[in-house]
Amino acid sequence: MQAALVTRLDGPVAVEVADVDAPEAGGRVLIDVAAAGVTYPDVLLTRGEYQMKPTPPFVPGSEVAGTVRSAPEGSGFAAGDRVAALCGIGGFAEVAAAGADSVFPLPDDVSFAEGAALPVNHLTAELALGRRGRVQAGETVLVHGAAGGVGAAAVQVAKVLGARVLAVTSTEEKAALARRLGADETLPVDGFKDAARELTDGRGVDVVVDPVGGDRFTDSLRSLAREGRLLVLGFVGGEIPTVKVNRLLLANTSVVGVAWGELVMATPGLLQEQWARLLPHLEAGALRPAVGATHPLADAGAALARLDERRALGNVVLTVP
């Protein structure tokens, strides 16, 4: 089969498409891949900077959508089923393998490109806003990076939870996307704290979703209302910020870590529980990933570079012939 290979740990430029052996089932669900989502961890894998460090050559790609080729008895899946799946690694290929607990039914009106962009970002957002952030209907949620993969997912998940959403973006084009996804207000990066305070009549926001980190972290803390929660999802801005804990004490606020992958591995059944909560909203059309760019499998390196250089608007997806 054709697959995109990381041949050396030099970033997206080191990705080549080649013929490799198709995976064996080994008790897993085999999927004929129609589309594969491109995520920031995939970029880190190409440089050996992710916590999982496979030895080159290897096939990156953690999320796919397509049709089941074969499935073990009792898995709940059968050949021909439309599915999305988390495969951990190996998704940038014509065939991928995933454990049955990481395979999810895909509604007929969700395209494969949309399905491939769903698992990592939307399940991360669901965990962040639901289990970790405990967002309640009527609360106000501020989302950084609201036109990126996890940020865009957070906008949509916050809306289905009944929250008011303030989306922070760096350009008007990204702001327009955030509004299409359901954001109630959009704010520029510069001055977002004061704008958020003004929009909440000085009270502040209940929750901040921050996959960016860097120099906006302190102002995010200052944006919180009493008993507000700042959800830390990552540091795509590069710098890992620090917090003076007296700030938390003074306003009874919290900084909450959201390591979705770690919790999923430690909690059997969590993925299926999350998908079950999202599925009604997928079927109703309330959750749809913003697929901003599609690349053929042969251009996997370019797709990864688009994300690495922060040129992505919405999700980046590989299509597999």
Walk me through what this model shows.
This protein is an alpha/beta fold. It folds into two domains: 2-118 and 289-319, Quinone Oxidoreductase, Chain A, domain 1 (Alpha-Beta Complex); 122-261, Rossmann fold, CATH 3.40.50. Helix content is 31%, strand content 26%. It has helices at residues 40-46, 112-116, 119-132, 149-160, 172-181, 192-199, 217-223, 245-251, 260-266, 270-284, 300-308, and strands at 2-6, 15-19, 29-38, 63-70, 82-86, 95-98, 103-105, 140-143, 164-169, 185-188, 205-210, 224-232, 254-257, 291-296, 315-319. Strand 1 (2-6) and strand 2 (15-19) form a beta hairpin. Helix 3 packs across helix 10 and helix 6 (192-199) packs parallel to helix 7. The radius of gyration is 19 Å and the shape is globular. The N and C termini lie close together (11 Å). The mean pLDDT is 95.
